[in-house]
């Protein structure tokens, strides 16, 4: 049975903002949501039971309690929700999942914020990823009010994030989508930082620390350069496996 099963009954929310974090290009949405939950010390608010979620159970560090692989976390003081997913949603089941969660969004007057990575290789790694905002319902007006750029070219959002945005469009409800240039091969904390600072902070009118995202970006770039070097030497050396530390 599709439902949002609350774990915290004493939390009161007034038109909260929700940030979605499904795995995608550059893992941008997931990096953002994981970062918000950790840095803002958000509480596990609810388990999500929806059609389309793989039938698996998740366990967490330092706890013997099983939870669903898709969960909601809350920071009541900031009026912020985060949708964390440990698993991808099958595109064929994305519409059913969208029907499930957006019904709850409407009941709670939630402003959903969806994140999608735009595959692109930036030759200059110092160049900040381009960030665009799109929306349905009152979403475009909210984006315009805080000065977030419109897309520079035609595009399409697919997967579960695309289904959620399409659901908002079909049902004339308000939703916001952030589209950010992202590395198609590696997790991209730089893109996550761009979305937080250029999109979520002005839209939700809050400040979010991002210093440790910069550290993750440096670690990933070092791992990337090491991998490229190993690939260049592959024709001169015998095969071997070596661990490469990367954000996951």
TrEMBL record:
Pfam families: PAC2
Polar residues bias: start-end ranges: 227-236
Keyword Amino-acid biosynthesis among UniProt keywords: no
InterPro entries, A to Z: Proteasome_assmbl_chaperone_2, PSMG2_sf
Ranges for region Disordered: 226-248
Gene Ontology cellular component annotations, sorted alphabetically: proteasome complex
Superkingdom in the source lineage: Archaea
Record keywords: Proteasome
UniProt biased composition (Basic and acidic residues): 237-248
Name the UniProt record assigns to this protein: Proteasome assembly chaperone family protein
Native organism: Halonotius terrestris
Higher taxonomy: Archaea, Methanobacteriati, Methanobacteriota, Stenosarchaea group, Halobacteria
